[in-house]
Design goal:
The structure is a single chain. The chain has 9 helices and 23 strands. With about 450 residues, it is of the alpha+beta class. The strands form 6 sheets. It has an 8-stranded mixed sheet, with no helix packed on it. Strands 17-18-19-21-20 form a 5-stranded mixed sheet, covered by helices on one side. Strands 3-7-6 form a 3-stranded antiparallel sheet, with no helix packed on it. α5 crosses α6 and α8 packs across α9.
């Protein structure tokens, strides 16, 4: 097996973890989504206008879309020559071939009853709550609600116009530009000007109260059921302090604002989206019982949402970094130090099978907890080896150099090599035993 910190596939190759997602012959730059949704009946009608560039000559445009009925497709304002809908794909034949390097638009009118996709990682995508909606799309659930080029390395800007019944709050990525009544309910308009991966696009619908949390370097809003007001304000009250800590350790917070949604339903796990995190009511106890999870999801704004992997096999670049951020928060608040936590989790790994290579865990196991913990331990080994000053300087380099872009393990190695004035091979030797080998090494 080639070391994943050294040899990496090119972005032109299909991702072997999600080989049926995305089309590498074109790249999106902007999505304009207009959605009319009825919570009571789970009825959805929408239009998507995608601005894109052909990377090669296109005689057909292939989009990811699941379970929706397509009514019409236009390319550059002209009705498509042919449209073919499969279970997971929408194939569009433009009126004339699109030449490489040419910008074009695809306008899709579609409708249906959205539902989550079944996947090796459970049900993902658009999902009904008891009284509302949650969208949790990682890694391939975005096509459950809009046509897209579903690749983590194809980031674009977005504008959402979402109309649903009055009485519900709608939360989506980016800035809330308008909230207006219309004939069918209330229309909410959001936009994000920072490029976003498709799997991080989200809509959250529920009956929420909104609370503003003070003291952060950026606006922080908390959307929660009214009966959880006191408990939610207690549990998430430290988020401004967390943002300040991570801004010091990782670099400035990468987005204009941060939002937290607490659903009225219980959720198995919390999740992050671009500029947002989503928790279930079971994650709120008013006693800081989930501080570790809150710290983890916030850290993904830097590692995962702004700096995004190019290939899914490198998921440790998201989860290992977010897990290590939990340890930094514990250290900062006077709890267990990163040294203590690293030793504890290393001991825990010794009690589990040593049969997983974190740098290429396989699609089925890419969210295995060992990916999280071994990724964090790789970072701690590096911190012990090069020292705090170089370690945190390297983190800043990663988040600045690849801000709103994509990253590979080699990019991370290069950043730490530069920060510590070492050869990349020396940095790689510290990380590789944790990432490229199944056995559990000793900490430096």
């Amino acid at each position: 097996m080639k070391p994943t910190t050294d040899a990496e596939p090119t972005t032109a190759d299909p991702d072997p973890y999600t080989p049926h997602s995305g089309d590498r012959r074109w790249r999106a730059s902007h999505y304009e989504l207009r959605i009319d949704y009825r919570v009571a009946t789970n009825r959805f009608s929408g239009t998507a206008t995608i601005t894109a560039t052909a990377l090669t000559r296109l005689d057909r445009i292939v989009l990811d879309l699941h379970g929706m009925s397509v009514e019409r497709v236009d390319v550059d304002g002209v009705r498509a020559k042919k449209v073919s809908s499969g279970i997971h794909k929408l194939t569009v034949t433009p009126p004339a071939p699109i030449q490489a390097g040419t910008e074009f638009t695809v306008h899709v009118r579609y409708r249906g009853t959205p539902r989550p996709l079944r996947s090796p990682w459970g049900q993902i995508g658009w999902e009904e709550l008891t009284d509302g909606v949650i969208v949790a799309a990682q890694p391939t659930g975005a096509p459950s609600w809009f046509p897209c080029n579903d690749r983590p390395d194809d980031k674009a800007t977005y504008r959402f116009e979402i109309t649903c019944e009055a009485g519900y709050d709608v939360v989506a990525n980016g800035d809330l530009l308008a909230k207006e009544r219309d004939g069918r309910g209330v229309r909410w308009t959001y936009a994000t000007t920072d490029p976003m991966a498709t799997y991080l696009a989200t809509v959250q619908i529920g009956r929420y109260r909104t609370t503003t949390l003070r003291g952060a370097p950026v606006p922080v809003t908390l959307h929660h059921p009214v009966d959880l007001t006191t408990a939610a304000k207690t549990d998430f009250g430290q988020v401004p302090e967390m943002i300040a800590l991570y801004a010091d350790r990782f670099g400035p917070y990468p987005f204009p604002a941060y939002g937290v949604v607490v659903t009225d339903d219980e959720l198995e796990i919390p999740l992050e989206a671009h500029g947002l995190a989503v928790f279930g009511r079971n994650h709120v106890d008013g006693e800081h019982g989930t501080d570790r999870l809150i710290a983890h999801e916030l850290a993904h704004q830097w590692f995962g949402n702004s700096v995004t992997l190019a290939h899914w096999r490198d998921i440790w670049l998201h989860e290992g970094f977010a897990c290590y951020a939990e340890w930094l928060w514990s250290e900062h608040r006077g709890g267990d130090s990163a040294d203590t936590l690293a030793a504890q989790y290393r001991d825990g790994l010794l009690e589990q099978p040593e049969d997983l290579v974190v740098g290429d865990p396989g699609a089925k196991d890419m969210f295995d907890d060992r990916v999280y913990k071994r990724g964090a331990l790789a970072l701690h080994a590096l911190r012990r080896t090069i020292g705090d000053e170089a370690f945190f300087s390297g983190l800043w380099t990663v988040t600045e150099r690849h801000r709103h872009g994509t990253v590979t393990p080699s990019d991370v190695v290069a950043a730490f090599a530069e920060a510590s004035a070492r050869d990349a091979s020396a940095v790689r030797q510290v990380i590789a035993p944790w990432i490229d080998e199944p056995s559990v090494p000793a900490l430096p």
